[in-house]
Amino acid sequence: MNDSPVEINNILQRILPRVQKPARYTGGEYNQILKDWNNTKLHVCLIFPDIYDLGMSNLGLMILYDLINQRSDALAERAFSPWLDLEDQLRKFNLPLYALESKHPLKAFDILGFTLPYESLYTNALNILDLAQIPLFSDQRALQHPLIIAGGHSTFNPEPMHSFIDAFVIGEGEEVIQEILDVYSDWKIETLPFENIPPSISKSKRNELLKHLAKLDGVYVPKFYQEHYNLDNTFSRLEPIEPGAPETIRKRIVGKLPPPPTRLIVPYIETVHDRIPLEIMRGCTRGCRFCQAGMITRPVRERGVDEIIQSIQQSIKNTGYEEVGLLSLSSSDYTNILDLIHSFNQHFSLDTLSVSLPSLRIDSLSVELMQSLGLARRNGFTLAPEAATERMRRIINKPVTTDQVLETADAIYSNGWSTIKLYFMIGHPLETLEDVQAIVDLSKMVIRIGRKHIGNRAQVNVGVSTFIPKPHTPFQWTVCDTEEQIQIKLSMLKDQLRGKGIKLTWNPPDATFLEAWLSRGDRRMANVIYQAWQLGAKFDAWNDQRNLSAWQQAFEINQIEPDFYTHRQRAMDEAFPWDHISIGVRKKYLLQDYQWSLSGKTRQDCRDHCFACGILPKYNSLRKQNPGNAWKCPDVISREKSNQHDAIAN
Ligand code: SF4
Questions:
Q1: 512 with 427, same domain?
Q2: Which of 129, 280, 358, 638 has CA 20 to 30 A from 6's CA?
Q3: What would the pLDDT profile of 598-618 be if each residue is shown by its tens digit?
């Protein structure tokens, strides 16, 4: 058995020189937290099921690592997917996957917490359990196995992974993780020792834990529910089969954003974002109809300017990073954006600290913001019209005009940027080939504007992805384009968007279909995921690793027609496998929004009106529980914002 940290360390000394980037697997980075294992009651390992280089930039993981390690009774460590070379070595030496900090094997932890932001990580999660030598199926685990929990955006439809995860955490994790640890701690005290317990008692003790967890708001324990289907194979309902299991799982919302982590781990190797990630705002009120993040993260909550500045100062001191990302879904919608920029410029020198401000609106204010932050012109300026005709943008509820796009492009090129990145989607509902042709035309108009200002230095990078209908969005009823439709549209773009100054990139259709099958899947998809993994599927988010034939075989083995999930228009009154998950936004609001989209009717930004979607009553009840929450009515925020804009105009 190679199960002790000492043995694992010894074998690692031999195998790490044989793999690429050994620093992915050593731990020991600056600011890592290594607590005394034997004197800490609860052991949690946080797992991002892709490689270290990607997972180390995951903000959710950093937040939970910081919060759990603040508890005196708990420790949190980290694990990621090993790349193929290390996986070979682990299997060859029968070495269980381990956590970076203490080198304890994952199977020695009390709780393993998976972050699942997107569906193409599912097979990696299974692979990690397998490498950890933990049974993949929840019902095969006993007392000696860790509790497997998972959260993240993809778990707003947890059903495809219901067989593998003991409990899902729906929504924001900052508060509920503490409740889970408290429940686990009480249960552990009552249940110890775990050894020498007969299997039947072991299972019932584990069940006790799950029953306690199921009582927590926002925790979903799938084994306490039975699914039912209609004769036509559509989903019918999910029935609670354990007394006390709630019919609806309401997502968790934190009333006030807790202080951001500032003692960030500094990796030895380059990761996708080597910077301080500072979340300035959570949630989005724009209501783009394809956007799951915008729907599931409501309502908007903002951090104060002073808190942001102090956190940046603290983070620089703790890490030495020279870049900060001011993160949110829609940065220019942050109420006090001008104050923030002003204060930022007062406190920091742009010569020593660079800033990224992603997700800006298409308007001249965005150009002013980028300018006042001295944002790196070498990286280009990103605009995401998502569709190229005004008709299509009304359908998706992103009602910017073509003139706004062109005026913003003009402002960008005339202010010294040479590259504009334009993001579009193809395959939106009611899209015609004229809408696709318009992507070509609009991109060419933009490059002409660039050439007018800077000649042949002007560059337009056009990124095209294919629309995927997502749960909990107004488009959850609609269909995905077929492969033939996608290929026709991509050919039009590839034929015409070429030549000097224009570069086109696109998502391969197999990546689209994989995500589309899984995102609106039901419980029957769990066996498909398992079989695909057995047939070799993993690293499905990687274009050079995705194994579509494994997935196709897995569907065949399970006699499931993949098109049922992607190319079937849902009836307006169809029950969905994720209906038991409440995001606070009413289904009838989403349906009305879908119907509005079909007639090209747009919806106002919530900040300019009210929360017709239903999130406000839920949030108000949180405010009553915690009157200190820094909450403002969206109308007030909107008025304050327009005052600021007036101030710039004058
Ligand atoms: S602006 Fe639109 S696409 Fe962006 S987060 Fe908000 S709703 Fe989503």
A1: yes
A2: 129
A3: 999 999 887 766 667 888 766
Domain co-membership, 391 together with 318? no
Ligand 1 centroid – CA 402 distance (Å): 18
Residue 294 Cβ contacting ligand 1 at under 6 Å: yes
b/e string for 18-31 if b means 16 or more Cβ within 10 A?
ebebeebbebebee
Looking at the CA of residue 386, tell me the nearest atom of ligand 1.
3
Is 296 a pocket residue for ligand 1 (Cβ < 6 Å)? no
Task: Answer yes or no: is the C-beta of 291 below 6 A from any ligand 1 atom.
Answer: yes
82 pLDDT more than 70: yes
Contact 286, 400 (CB under 8 A): no
Q: Is 27 left (phi over 0), alpha (psi -120 to 50) or beta?
A: left
Structure tokens given for 57: 């930039």
Q: Are strands 225-229 and 219-220 parallel, antiparallel or unpaired?
A: unpaired
Ligand 1 pocket check for 286: Cβ under 6 Å = yes
User: CA-to-CA distance for 423 and 445, rounded, in angstroms?
Assistant: 15
What is the side-by-side strand order in the sheet with 419-426?
381-386, 419-426, 459-466, 502-506
Residue nearest to atom 2 of ligand 1 (CA): 288
For ligand 1, whether the C-beta of 585 sits within 6 Å is no
| pLDDT on residue 612 | 76
- Give the position, in ligand 1's atom list, of the atom nearest the Cα of 284: 6
Instruction: Please check whether residues 346 and 471 belong to one and the same domain.
Output: no
Residue pair 67/177 in contact (Cβ under 8 Å)? The answer is yes
The CA distance from 176 to 60, in Å, is: 13
> What tokens appear for 229 in the block?
């289907």
Tell me if the pTM is above 0.90.
Answer: yes
**Per-residue pLDDT for 647 more than 60?**
no
Place of tokens 């923030």: 340
